[in-house]
Amino acid sequence: MKLKSRKLKKTTVIDFATYIGVILAFIIMNTLKSQGMLTRSLTGQLIPICCYIVMAVSLNLTVGILGELSLGHAGFMSVGAFSGIVAAMSLQSVIPSEALRLAIALVVGAIFAAIAGTLVGIPVLRLRGDYLAIVTLAFGEIIKELINCLIIGVDEAGLHVINATGTKSVNDLGLSEAGRVLIKGAQGATGTQTIASFTAGFILIMISLVIILNLVRSRSGRAIMALRDNRIAAESVGINVTKYKMMAFVTSAALAGAAGALYGLNFSNLVATKFDFNTSILVLVFVVLGGLGNIWGSIIAATVLTILPEALRGFADYRMLIYAIVLILVMLATNNPQLKALFAKLIPVRKGENVNGQA
Amino acid sequence: MARLKSKNDSPLVPMPSDAYIPQRDLGKTPVLEARHLGIDFGGLTAVDDFNLVIGRTEIAGLIGPNGAGKTTVFNLLTKVYQPTRGTIMVDGYDTKGMSTVQVNKLGVARTFQNIRLFNNLSVEDNVKLGMHNQIKYGMAGGILRLPSYWKQERIAHERALELLSIFDMQDMAAAKAGSLPYGAQRRLEIVRALGTNPSLLLLDEPAAGMNPSETAELMENIIKIRDTFQIAIMLIEHDMNLVMGICEGICVLNFGKVIAKGTPDEIQSNPVVIEAYLGKKKEA
């Protein structure tokens, strides 16, 4: 009983430390921003950092907690970004409040990404093995190409959508005079009103954290982790494998969609090629560097690795090279017994837990 | 499936005359009945014409030389493999086409020969995962921490400690399952299986790797589990002291076929069994 109460305390302490850390970081950054003490490039980075944190945390649900490799997380971000932009822009005249429109855009982005996640998940998550990695990789590319040939406009009659193949262009939309073009095929979304705010990014991070941390500590989260640890044993105790895989994967996709919508509404111009394979890998790097299943690790990795390339602008060409090297180093380091022993010394709580467990 | 499981509407199936069943279980629906069960892997027949009936509170043993197909029988009964031939009735219900999950909900729980715990989760979480289908709150209840979450988790916590106390393991509840000593991992698998509220518990070599005193303790505990939960237990075991000591009915398998069935005394003196284990006597 004594041990149990200590353990409960430990997970709760980590969760609360994560929440408090994020809140403190937000307060500090917001104060610095309002005082004008941040460089311009860093101020511009605040919202993308929020988006990447949500991306990393949500991908951690699929990769770290469910244990399935997804290589198309940017695809869900893309779906969320463009559906969010269309939602926010087409409601511009109806809803004057920017905050409310942003909230609607995030929800719409999350819903569309969740639908995309369901469509990808239904066939693939029934299979065993690495099929999810292959299919999500293809999904990311397909979404990129698909949005590249979409032309979407809006007028008082509603949304106009055409497929920009062949000779079709913006003129074929059939918009009335008051109409506006939202997405222009390969040129992407242009003239988007940038309504994303740092506060919204912070709220989105907090919501994602609450969803993921509470999910992990609940019955469903236990089932998801059980699938990761041992699928056959999970089936033998009556856990529906496909259901819980879908639950984790769709939740992850929906959060990525919301992050995408926030990201999309932060730039007046956005092209679909922004969300390519490199972005997916970038987010995967955040997750691997932060530690699989380690939520606060993902947050820190996403923050550091988003700021770093900006800080080292001169080395931007070598960024992908450096990531590869860092990934290899991390893999080597985490398997190194001496380093493991060092970490065990640095984190006495974990070591103590194991000793108690043996007793 | 869970709705079907009510003990009252369970249809009575006439008992096959060749079945071995303890006196006290006669007249009740057998918890498990396998008829002409068989499976082929490609051209190889791993199990053939396997017939077995287990009474409601029976402790049954499944023995045989290595490679006889014992674990394959367990995998058939839990639908890890779908049988090529034959039927399996659990509690009087045909399990044709059912999945492992559905059979578990009907009341069949098992342990594994090569331990399969959720190694990165705590001992308590492992037991709670066994109780997964008894804990009733959904994804939203968990994320929003609705009152149902707190209530159900508290009940689950108490029940998990209660189940762990069968093997006196409640002090290990917070430890990682993967960090437990070997014997404790085997016991935890049994506790996790019990968490699913089974009516038939399948134990695949529960005493493997245990020393004689641990085995003796395990024997007591198996009987204790049967008496407390009033369930049937079927076990695969190579330790003959354990099998002969606690099993009421024994089934001997060799090359995928049942070669003998009966009480421990009958099995011990059965020349066919002795031949299967020790080989044929040389003709003088």
Number of domains of chain B: 2
Rg over alpha carbons of chain B = 20 Å
| Helical proportion of chain B, percent range | 25-40%
Mean pLDDT reading of chain A: 86
Q: Give the overall form of chain B.
A: globular
What is the N-to-C order of secondary-structure elements of chain B (H for helix, E for strand)? EEEHEEHEHHHHEHEHEEHH
Distance between the termini of chain B: 60 Å
Whole-angstrom Rg of chain A = 22 Å
Largest sheet features of chain B = 6 strands, mixed
Please count the helical segments of chain B: 10
What does this 3D model show about the protein?
The complex is a heterodimer of chains A (359) and B (284). By secondary structure, chain A is mainly α. Chain A is built from 14 helices and three strands. Chain A has helices spanning 2-34, 40-66, 73-90, 98-124, 131-148, 198-216, 219-229, 231-236, 241-264, 277-290, 295-311, 319-334, 337-346, 348-358; strands at 150-155, 158-163, 180-184. In chain A, a hairpin with a 2-residue loop joins strand 1 and strand 2. The model of chain A is unreliable at 1-6 and 350-359 (pLDDT under 50). By secondary structure, chain B is of the alpha/beta class. Chain B has two domains: 1-107 and 198-284, P-loop containing nucleotide triphosphate hydrolases (Rossmann fold, 3-Layer(aba) Sandwich), CATH 3.40.50; 118-195, no CATH class. Helices cover 35% and strands 21% of the residues of chain B. Chain B has ten helices and ten strands. Chain B has helices spanning 70-77, 100-106, 123-130, 139-143, 147-164, 182-195, 212-229, 240-246, 264-268, 271-278, and strands at 32-41, 44-54, 59-63, 85-90, 93-94, 108-110, 200-204, 232-236, 249-254, 257-262. In chain B, helix 3 (123-130) packs parallel to helix 6 (182-195). The radius of gyration of chain B is 20 Å and the shape is globular. The model of chain B is unreliable at 1-14 (pLDDT under 50). Chains A and B meet through helix 1, helix 6, helix 7, helix 8 and helix 14 of A and helix 2, helix 3, helix 4, helix 5 and helix 6 of B.
